Amino acid sequence: MSLRTRIYNLFEIRGAEEVAARVLNVLLMFLILVNVLAVILETVEEYRIQYGMWFRYLEIGSVIVFTFEYMLRVWSCVENSSYGGGWWARLRYMRSPMAVVDLLAILPFFCSMLFSIDTRMLRVFRLFRVFKLSRHFSVLEVLGNVFRSEAKALLSAIFIMMILVVLSSAGMYVVERSTQPEVFSSIPRAMWWAVVTLTTVGYGDVVPVSLAGRLLGVVITILGVGMAALPGGILRSGFSGGLAAPRRAFENSAAKVGMGWGMTYHSQRQLIKIRNELGLERGEAKQLLKKVVLEHQLSEQGEEDVCPHCGKILH
Hints:
Layout: H1 3-12, H2 18-42, H3 45-76, H4 86-94, H5 97-114, H6 119-126, H7 138-149, H8 151-176, H9 187-198, H10 211-257, H11 265-278, H12 282-301
Helix pairs in contact: 1-2, 1-3, 2-3, 3-5, 7-10, 8-9, 8-10, 10-11, 10-12
């Protein structure tokens, strides 16, 4: 096995280097969290004055580690056949979302060395490092996939919400303009009330006082309860489906390669590869495999001949 393959396996948590890869990924996660915490604490003037030097040392050390990680990932990405081969594969990898996140994690530091940048803006950009955690937590990756897959539905919900905001603002402008000219003097000014009401936040700083305005406010509030829940429902449905999809895919793959009865070495390696690609934990994959084996035994022997708890054949 070449050095490049070993490095690729380290970053992807696969092969013989799985234990070392998990240790490496835990250390990287810890460094990311420490960086985010440091950026937050650095905004406190007292801490910035007292520990400014240590914050600087942490930033330099972190940039060295993240830069080294980025370079190794770009170098070893050709081991993934989906990117192809040669430098074109590396360019394709560099355009991937996670590679862009890795680049944004180190870019502010080098930009600050070349250009004069406001330190407050620099701290904000350094917070982009928190997105590096999405590589280490499959749940965040699932959430990103949900946003991509449900983009049309979410945009439709947002578009409907925008229409309601405009109509609500216009209606409140008409009925409240004469009563509260300082608050509802124009449709743009009334939009603040419409947004707060439709999203069910209700700060209470601006309220209708006329009878017509209050009646309209009741209708808009009722509409807002349903509309505010719509994007959440879309995300909730997509998120639950996204979490279940890798499990279903592993079960289907296990059924195709032999599941667990008379499994060959080749089929075992194939299942391990599938597990890694789907991002499933070893224990979770074992439980799914047991489930598939039990279902197979039930179908082969008949439900009355197999224990539903342990899967053993009853005599």
